[in-house]
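Tokenise the fold.
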Amino acid sequence: MPNSGFTVGLVQMACGNDPAGNVAAAVEGVRQGAQAGAQILCLPELFRSMYFCQSEDVAYFELAEAVPGPTTRHLSALAAELAVVLVAPVFERRAAGVYHNTVVVIDADGRLLGRYRKTHIPDDPLYYEKFYFTPGDLGYPVFDTRYARVGPLICWDQWFPEAARLSALAGAELLVYPSAIGWHPAERATERATQRESWRTMQRAHAIANGVFVAAINRVGHEGPTDNGLTFWGSSFACGPDGQILADSAVQAPEVVLATCDRDAIERQRQGWPFLRDRRIDTYRDLTRRLLDKRTASEPPGDET
């Protein structure tokens, strides 16, 4: 793995009803990014289809596929051809009735290094993911690729500092968040701006708190009924260990954005802001509890969840 740094490409795209057409658009974006110099290329969450979780419909389970499977084999050949690392989401069929929202990491020689299964599963209006996805059971793996150590996470995971911290503790230099996040048509412009800024701020905070690079990749376009549906806000970006934006995409246009990441910035950030050094791991036992019920200072921690 070279010491100087690496270049990340974010493939921001619109997704339609045709899985083959979506894969073709993703491949074109990867080729464009590779030609521009990207070494690690990242695709949006569930890029092979429209965001079907806006409703609960068993017919959408037919979109799921095995890993390895047709999409991963196609992308493995592409990665080997272009000598790039691919971070690619897949709707994974693990077994009959067991499906995961998954991201695979493919090395620059085409090897499928492994997968991460989305751990935090939302269940909100137009985001009915608990109907489709079993929570991940692989922990927070980090993959040594040709160009960088990559910690893949997925969308809703981006709101949880624990996932980012565990990935950083496992050696991740780059956290990647493939996403599918957007606005409801009924939301006011001020609410939209606040949501988007909260999304960006949270991920920049992960970069700062852990001294790592962060890349977030979103889709664009409106999906679903005009008066209901979701308008995905794009805004894919990458930031450095100090939280500063290195590359930023448009809000609504398909685009491939590149960010050059200086690996030495991780060392500099952690020297100046030694959060990992100053962690008091002896005091964090209660983080494994759902809530901290009221008790006196003389009472020992309980076993309640």
